[in-house]
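Today's session is about reading a structure prediction critically. Students often jump straight to the picture, but the first step is always the sequence itself: look for stretches that repeat, for charged clusters, for runs of hydrophobic residues. Only then move on to the predicted structure, which in these notes is written as discrete structure tokens rather than atom positions. Here is the chain we will use throughout the hour.
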Amino acid sequence: MHYVIIGASAAGISAAETLVRLDPDAVITVVSREKDIAYSRCLVTYYISGQISRDAVFIRSDEQLRASGVRFIAGTEAVGLDTEKRHITLTDASAISYDRLLVASGASPVLPDIKGIKGLGVYTLRTIADADSIIAEMTESKAVTILGDGLVAVTAAMALNKRGMCVSLVGIAPHILAGFLDSRAAGIIQNRMTEAGIRFYLGKSFSEVNRDAGGRLNSVTLSDGTSLEADMAVIAAGVKPELKVFGETAVAVEKGLLVDEFMETSVPGIYAAGDVAQAYDVVRNAPVWNPLWPHAVEQGRCAALNMAGRKVRYSGSTNMNSLNIGGISLVCAGIANSELPDYESFYLSDNNSTYKKLVFRNRKLAGFILLGKTEKSGVLTSLVKHETISPTQKDKLLGGHFSYTALTGPDH
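Below is the predicted structure for this chain, in token form.
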């Protein structure tokens, strides 16, 4: 049996290591377009900030990868797929045949169509190579403008601020982290970032990146005409699933590659996991693109189990985040920022240091936000993944009783 995996990040590494344990006699080949493999994208901004070393970003050492028995082909991209002949084509025109294929190719940064955006001083932030370039540029830069208002943009802003740079964050949304936070929780975090010296220009975008006669970045013009001095720009305007390899194939695609409960795509023998996959969401009860590291690890493991014939159903995922911004801890999961009429929002705490919000839909805990005090977030996350909760459990939650003991028992 020859298992081929496209991608060597969370899902790909998880799948490869699972297959080694399940089928030690199989041949396993992992292809990665990146030269650096088996590192955590979640730690890249910590590397930029100087909080950790470059080596600390990697989740597996070169020695561990060599000892695994897996064949790794790094720095080479899969550019073609023949589903009938069951082989992939690489950038050097060579082909690799497979019996089972896992697509864990991840996602790529979105680069908006903005005048002057391509050139010196403008960076995306997705890979460790991107981080290396930004760190090298920091020695010559003092002012950086970040385009984006999501998690990567916010954590990059804090990292560059920690390095002493003058940071401006420009985002099209009305508040930061709008993909998973409401305006109140986002406002508390934004206030802390403002206290650290970060400037915000929300509800705006770049209209032009301006350069001097030598092509060096010197400012950006915003959509409202505001001009911001900048000698570096970081584009963190979102990512999209990396789907180039599929071309005209019959593999079903929506936002990402659609997979069934066994992580298999519409083409038998081809599986998908991680940021490229669109899998079952336990809150929305539908296939949803949830590009998060923990989900990628679990999806990679589940896909590998099924590739090896174990027939294990994927339990599903939902949106969840855990972070610390400027000393403020935050954990949230599910749908916590919806204003739709069939969602009920309850606020258990709301001040400048703590914020607790629970969101219900019918008999289900649809989501929550814990900011400042995040104890018992594991209990709430577990409940979000449950199909229903009882009226007694709901009353206990609204009374602030988040413990497993309080939520179980004969009267739960």
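Discussion point for the tutorial: Residues 2-38+58-108+240-307 form a domain with the FAD/NAD(P)-binding domain fold (CATH 3.50.50.60).
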